[in-house]
User: Which sequence fits this backbone?
């Protein structure tokens, strides 16, 4: 049998996390990268790296053929998909097996039942676990209105083959349904490669609690405790913690039993998460299964002392895995995104000119960047996670605030100031927040962003790394000399929901035009959406800043635009 060799079919901080686990196990690693990630941290840290293709995910991280070819050329024996991209794609798991590669994840059959959110609902119903009222079959825009009448409003449109809130939209009125379904399908296709969506009733006040499981190939299932992901915005988790502050021992037992029942019904193998909505009275409803490693897995690691990536690998290698642990203390994670919290969390890709991570006891940071590295606009804006542990929740909260004060990032906007505010809020301290609390607080103006620090520029001479590609394989070369100073990224203050002065509407960021909403000669009012711009896998509605008549539409659907580029001219 060949010595283990791990290909990581992902990028960013999760690829770095997997590389580190493999180093501890003595397993060589193979990175893959797009043109936008040629100089990325995960590429530098891996033992080998192979080019996949252009920046577009469909031509790189979603390109199964290119990934398998890299596996063949590198002599890889295993593939870890991370999260997102192909992590819950059963066809990819099958293709890996057919190519002789061990897939780090559940078998394709389990993935089809659990990774397909609608099928997972049916499985939960089959074992008596309560589910949110809704329809368990994918729907398109043409059937959505008919289905919605049976579900009721408000309802949520959700991606059937994804997670992490991607492709999920709240619909309060029937007239907004078609647009939400079409938008969800576009986002689901872009991020997961599958456009199917389904509908379920939206619970207006709830806590988001998820159960972490691990199951081996010998029939052993283990419940590793729960995480609370209630602090979120537009279905994107922002802060996660373990244990949940609203779950007592009795409720923990019931949630764990329900999660294990669903996993056993699916014949699940590997690490997985069963998510629930929990109401104030302790009632809970099955939400979905994430048949992969979660972004927020580090908080479980901090309170259990377990390495979940290592457990995944041990399961895939056929070992008996039934971890013994004693939960201890409390852990909190903040997702650090390249987004401008002062301007509706607009993505802000660019070059990181300064990166000073925090340190000290019980502080961990999982980052996919380093000083001088670029955060591309082609992918998710998450570039780091800050995780802090304390003997109790208050100690963990105060330690997280201390670490946020120490964390310095320059060159791109970040969400650091938002987390300082959120963790200091009375609602978070009392754990009285629900899944919509952030949006209500933002709408009421309770978050007052801190002034952005001036962007620093690198000026000192240092060794430059030049990447040479030899037959698609990345070979780094170090050269000494003066470092060229990169152009200064646009100031975060330039990012806003409404853009443009008297003459026109400009792009707040680099991205791709998805849809044009106006034409020449059309009258528009301030606040009217003129186009939809996709950046970092998020759809951004670009609005007019003043009334006027469209003199020129300067872009077309599919065009890639730069920051500051004129999109529509008004007169």
Assistant:
């Amino acid at each position: 049998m060949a010595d283990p060799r791990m290909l990581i079919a992902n990028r960013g901080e999760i690829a770095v996390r997997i590389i580190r686990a493999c180093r501890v196990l003595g397993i060589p690693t193979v990175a893959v990268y797009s043109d936008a990630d040629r100089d990325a941290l995960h590429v530098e840290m891996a033992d080998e790296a192979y080019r996949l293709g252009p920046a577009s995910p469909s031509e790189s991280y979603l390109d199964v053929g290119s990934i398998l070819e890299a596996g063949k050329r590198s002599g890889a024996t295993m593939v870890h998909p991370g999260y997102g991209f192909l992590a819950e794609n059963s066809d990819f798991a099958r293709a890996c097996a057919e190519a002789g590669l061990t897939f780090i994840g559940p078998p394709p059959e389990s993935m089809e039942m659990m990774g397909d959110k609608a099928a997972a609902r049916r499985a939960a119903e089959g074992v008596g676990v309560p589910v949110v009222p809704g329809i368990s079959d994918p729907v398109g825009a043409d059937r959505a209105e008919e289905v919605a009448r049976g579900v009721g409003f408000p309802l949520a449109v959700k991606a059937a083959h994804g997670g992490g809130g991607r492709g999920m939209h709240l619909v309060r009125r029937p007239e907004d349904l078609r647009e939400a379904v079409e938008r969800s399908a576009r986002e689901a296709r872009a991020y997961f490669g599958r456009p199917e969506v389904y509908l379920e009733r939206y619970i207006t006040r709830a806590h988001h609690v998820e159960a972490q499981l691990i199951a081996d190939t010998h029939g052993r299932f283990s419940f590793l405790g729960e995480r609370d992901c209630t602090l979120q915005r537009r279905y994107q988790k922002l802060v996660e913690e373990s244990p949940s502050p609203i779950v007592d021992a009795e409720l923990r037992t019931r949630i764990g039993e329900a999660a294990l029942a669903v996993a056993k019904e699916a014949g699940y193998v590997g690490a997985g998460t069963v998510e629930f909505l929990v109401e104030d009275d302790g009632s809970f409803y099955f939400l979905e299964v994430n048949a992969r490693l979660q972004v927020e897995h580090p908080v479980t690691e901090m309170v259990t002392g377990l390495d979940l990536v290592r457990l995944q690998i041990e399961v895939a290698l056929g070992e008996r895995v039934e971890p013994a642990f004693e939960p201890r203390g409390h852990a909190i994670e903040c997702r650090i995104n390249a987004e401008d919290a002062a301007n509706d969390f607009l993505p802000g890709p660019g070059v990181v000119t300064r990166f000073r991570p925090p340190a000290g006891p019980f502080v961990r940071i999982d980052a996919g960047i380093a000083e001088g590295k670029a955060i591309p606009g082609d992918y998710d804006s998450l570039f780091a996670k800050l995780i802090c542990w304390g003997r109790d929740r208050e100690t963990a909260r105060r330690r997280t605030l201390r670490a946020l004060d120490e964390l310095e990032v320059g060159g791109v906007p970040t969400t650091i100031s938002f987390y300082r505010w959120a963790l200091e809020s009375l609602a978070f301290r009392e754990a009285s927040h629900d899944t919509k609390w952030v949006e209500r607080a933002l709408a009421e103006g309770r978050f007052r962003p801190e002034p952005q620090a001036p962007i620093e520029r690198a000026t000192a001479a240092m060794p430059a790394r030049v990447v040479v590609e030899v037959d698609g394989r990345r070979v780094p070369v170090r050269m000494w000399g003066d470092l060229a100073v990169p152009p200064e990224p646009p100031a975060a203050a330039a990012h806003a929901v409404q853009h443009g002065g008297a003459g026109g509407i400009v792009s707040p960021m680099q991205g791709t035009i998805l849809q044009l909403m106006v034409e020449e000669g059309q009258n528009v009012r301030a606040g009217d959406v003129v186009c939809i711009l996709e950046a970092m896998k998020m759809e951004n509605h670009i609005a007019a800043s003043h009334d006027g008549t469209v003199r020129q539409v300067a872009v077309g659907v599919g065009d890639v635009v730069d920051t500051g580029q004129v999109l529509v001219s008004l007169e």
Summary: The chain is about 25% helix and 30% strand.
